[in-house]
Amino acid sequence: MTSTPSTPSGQGTQSGPHTQSGPHTQSAQGGPTPHRPEATLTADEARRIALRAQGFLGAPDRRAGVRGVLRHLGAVQLDTISVLARSHELIPYARLGAVGRPTVESAYWTDTHAFEYWSHAACILPIEEWPHFAFRRRAYRSRPHWHHHLPDGAYDQVIKQLRAEGPLTATELGGAKNKGEWWDWSDSKIAVERALMYGDVVCTERRSWKRVYDLAERAVPDALLHDDLDDAECLRRLVRLAGQSLGVGTRADIADYHRLKGEQFDAVVADSGLVPVAVQGWDKPAWADPQALATPPRGRHRTTLLSPFDSLIWERARTERIFGFTHRLEAYVPKPKRVYGYFAMPVLAGGRLVGRVDPAREGSTLVAKQVSLDGPKAVQGVAQALLEAARWVGCDSVRVERVDRPELTADLVRALS
Q1: Burial class of residue 308 (count of CB atoms within 10 Å of its CB; 0-12, 13-18, 19+)
Q2: Which residues contact 65 (CB under 8 A, 6 or more apart)?
Q3: What is the pTM of this model?
Q4: Across residues 302-327, what is the average pLDDT?
Q5: Which residue from 227, 219, 234 is spatially nearest to 110, judged by alpha carbons?
Q6: No. of H helices and E strands in the chain?
Q7: Per residue in 355-393, pLDDT tens?
Q8: Which three-class secondary structure state does DSSP give residue 1?
Q9: Buried b (16+ CB within 10 A) or exposed e, 127-162
């Protein structure tokens, strides 16, 4: 890593052959801030920083456990698909190993440690970040509301029912759907989802995959229950947290983490605490967590299957840039057009993405319906990841159905035996 001296004002400068030019960002005072890199990273350094920031390089913090993973990542994505497990279970498993699945759910949903809200997508978020999503709650309150008509009084009725009866699912509030298509929600479902977006209601857990709603005034600790922070302060915090969780990233990488707009990133990045850097081979400016730059990443690499919704690989362009690996969820692709499988899970080994596995379960057997290998060196990592995943979900054997490189099938089967 090549660093540059800092000026007395703290703004990095650089001269000579490593000088970088880039777009201007806006400081909180509104003035232009040129992107002057304070350090230059090799592509390998950037990859290792990203792996450590996401919890895949170095010893995992087992004492902090699942809650530590959530705080470290800042957001854990939820999704309806469940193959080996649901995505929010796979994410701590990928970092900590075979933590019990009941432990995962308990860590998220007991003692007011987390809430569900719209971040990168529907995500579990640390409860401490409730105040920093005030900007989004305000935006929801001021915009048109989908195409759903809400009768007069329906919103107030949902609030009244929750106040009287305590936490309830949409079904318990009067039914989630009418008799039409997927988005034909009932009035009570429309009302409670709108209340969730506004912040009057909080999703405090998932029960049989149904959201359980409660009043924010009951579910959010008093010290956090406010919308006092202005948009700039909220955005600064989320940009800083995203930068810390990614380690290093471009404007698009960091903004995408909590689904911020590029101009929102531009308005606050100069005051976010992130450091402008250049990464060799990246064609766009980048920013890094200064703490990540101060301590070179070392330690053991995690070998694991990754959920397609893991924050390590959220942004496709970033995944290709860092790992040279194209990741695409094909669950919604017509079956004849799938290349890697319905729920192909990338395999991380040795700090690289070395292949994919499309898994299923048949009784006590984990079935690798389709395995994609980058080459012979990927066999051991893929086998290790499959065996650990099988143990975690209670399977006592692994069966391989198809390998994209048939000549490696026998090697993989031997490695699994």
Answers
A1: buried
A2: 92, 96, 99, 103, 107
A3: 0.89
A4: 96
A5: 219
A6: 15, 18
A7: 999 999 999 999 999 999 999 999 999 999 999 999 999
A8: coil
A9: bebbbbbbbbbbeeeeeeeeeeeeeeebbeebeebb
